[in-house]
Design brief:
Blueprint lengths: L2 H23 L14 H7 L9 H13 L23 H10 L15 H13 L2
Helix pairs in contact: 3-5, 4-5
The protein binds heme C.
The site of heme C has 28 residues, from helix 3, helix 4 and helix 5.
Length: 131
């Protein structure tokens, strides 16, 4: 095989690879996947969080533990009733409101910006269950 043929094969290969790479880059980040349509590839990246409720434990570990495992900024500690005082008496609804809107050192939604109220509530429940 002559050098020029090898060169042409290389060029074609790079050209094809390049097109594939560019197509991937300009693919839309998120697009609407209408129910009933076959868009299995899209589901993984665009699954709405509200449909798949994450467990309270999952939310706690990912968003809340950073403060509540060590009592950062005076946060009541996980599984340490003495740091909670009378807080549990407020009830799950009021406690969830505190998380939703923030409370002193705790930022709104406890920094879980994509959490639904139900998810925040189950995270609170997970913390209460530890006491
Ligand atoms: C940046 C640190 C931080 C994060 C993250 C955080 N908290 Fe808190 N949390 C606090 C602090 C500080 C307090 C105590 C606030 C006070 O009473 O002054 C608190 C208080 C609470 C209380 C008691 C509220 C009340 O009304 O007495 C609950 C319940 C709670 N957090 C749940 C959560 C949940 C659920 C998450 C995760 C979704 C979370 N927190 C994330 C810092 C944090």
């Amino acid at each position: 095989m002559s050098y020029s043929k090898i060169l042409i094969i290389f060029l074609v290969a790079f050209f094809v690879l390049g097109i594939v790479a560019i197509k991937k880059r300009i693919a839309p980040v998120g697009f609407v996947c209408v129910q009933g349509q076959n868009c299995a590839n899209a589901v993984a990246t665009t699954a709405p969080t509200s449909n798949a409720l994450r467990s309270g434990e999952e939310i706690y570990v990912n968003a809340c533990a950073i403060c509540h495992s060590i009592g950062l900024a005076g946060a009541p500690k996980f599984a340490d009733a003495s740091t909670w005082g009378a807080r549990p008496d407020k009830g799950i609804a009021a406690l969830t409101m505190s998380v939703e809107y923030g409370l002193n050192g705790m930022p709104p939604k406890g920094m879980c910006m994509d959490c639904s109220e139900d998810e925040l509530s189950s995270a609170v429940q997970h913390m209460l269950d530890s006491l």
